[in-house]
Write a structure and sequence with these properties.
Strands 1-2-6-3-7-8-9-10 form an eight-stranded mixed beta sheet, sandwiched between helices. The protein is built from eleven helices and ten strands. It is an alpha/beta fold. The chain folds into two domains: about 240 residues, 3-Layer(aba) Sandwich (Rossmann fold), CATH 3.40.50.1820; about 80 residues, Rna Polymerase Sigma Factor, Chain: A. Helix content is about 40%, strand content about 20%. The chain is globular. About 45% of the residues are buried. Keywords: Acyltransferase, Transferase. Its EC number is 2.3.1.31. It comes from Flavobacterium limnosediminis JC2902.
Length: about 325
């Protein structure tokens, strides 16, 4: 397992003028040592962390030795969003979760990379919230990322997403069992009716007291409650609605005209969270001014969570992106 490391960020001013004299930014490095190979930054989603591969790695199917993102060929870095609780200090680090935005997390990540001597990325990849932060990183430095790969995400929060963030925020601030109850609601956004039917089909537990779907939801609520802090959940949920809040379609076009980044949009056809329709609209906007954009769609009944389920499809989409450097490395 890669050790959890820390780089210190000093004198960081947030958008609302709040100054952080010091912020610790925790991260892990996998694969090749920094400075010896192309760098792939992996941004985690709402309940994720920097453990992207190895023991308890949440993206082991994609990242590791001889995987699509091959740690024999790449330096893979993953930061923890400050306050995500992976180092156990959410409450102290983030006293007011609404001080932070996705854009300012992106700025922190760039500062963290620069502190490690990294100024250009071969790729930045992330699903859901992680993809939104990847977009924000590209907006900040349009010529320092070779491949931008947002998965089940978009460059902005839609009205639908903002509405659901509000409902989650209300549950987190008003429920007597906030993490548990918010997680149960969220699971219905991450999956689809078809997915739940295929999994449970109205079956009951052996004791016949509960339907299996009820037990499953209660289990997910309890599971997250046992490993995630309330302050962390409030922050991560809030960040979702801030994705692209300082951008509009005209600014997106201006970014596309300026950037040298190759943009790889990957949506899920059944996603209820970051919908495929929104991603298709983004693709139509971008392709008006650049040919450095592609669109792929994972076909799945499982909704938003398909980016953590449909690994065979996702690997097929990503293969050509990461094969380029693989060939160059072998030939070298």
């Amino acid at each position: 397992m890669s050790a959890l490391k820390k780089t210190d960020i000093f004198d960081f001013t947030l958008q609302n003028g709040v100054n952080k004299s010091w912020l610790p930014l925790y991260y892990q490095v996998f694969g090749q040592p920094i400075g010896t190979a192309p760098v792939v930054l992996v941004n985690h989603a709402l309940t994720g962390n920097s453990q992207v591969t190895g023991e308890k790695g949440w993206w082991n199917a994609l990242i590791g030795e001889n995987k699509i993102i091959d740690t024999e060929l790449y330096t893979v870095i993953a930061f923890n969003i400050p306050g995500n609780g992976f180092d156990g200090n959410s409450e102290d680090l983030i006293p007011n979760y609404k001080d932070f935005t996705a854009e300012y997390i992106a700025k922190l990540f760039w500062k963290g990379l620069n502190s490690l001597g990294i100024y250009r990325l071969f790729a930045v990849i992330g699903g859901s919230l992680g993809g939104g932060i990847a977009w924000e990183m590209a907006f900040l430095q349009p010529n320092n990322i070779q491949h931008l790969i947002p998965i089940a995400s978009d460059w902005k929060a839609s009205d639908w997403l903002i509405a659901n963030v509000l409902v989650q925020d209300q549950i987190l601030n008003n429920s007597s069992n906030p993490i548990h109850d918010a997680r149960m609601h969220a699971m219905l956004l991450y999956r689809t009716p078809e997915s739940l039917k295929a999994k449970f089909n109205r079956t009951k537990n052996d004791n016949q007291d509960l339907f299996q779907i009820e037990s499953w939801l209660l289990h997910h609520g309890k599971k997250l409650e046992s490993r995630f802090e309330l302050a962390a959940y409030k922050l991560m949920n809030h960040l979702l609605k801030t994705i692209g809040e300082n951008m509009d379609s005209e600014q997106l076009l201006a970014f596309a005209e300026e950037t040298t980044t190759q943009i790889h949009l990957i949506a899920v056809n059944s996603d209820y969270f970051f919908t495929a329709d929104e991603n298709r609209e983004t693709f139509e906007i971008l392709k008006k001014v650049t040919n450095q954009v592609s669109y792929n769609e994972i076909q799945s009944i499982h909704g938003h969570d398909a980016f953590l389920i449909e690994f065979e499809q996702l690997s097929g989409i990503l293969k050509n992106i990461f094969a380029t450097t693989k060939l160059k490395t072998i030939l070298a």
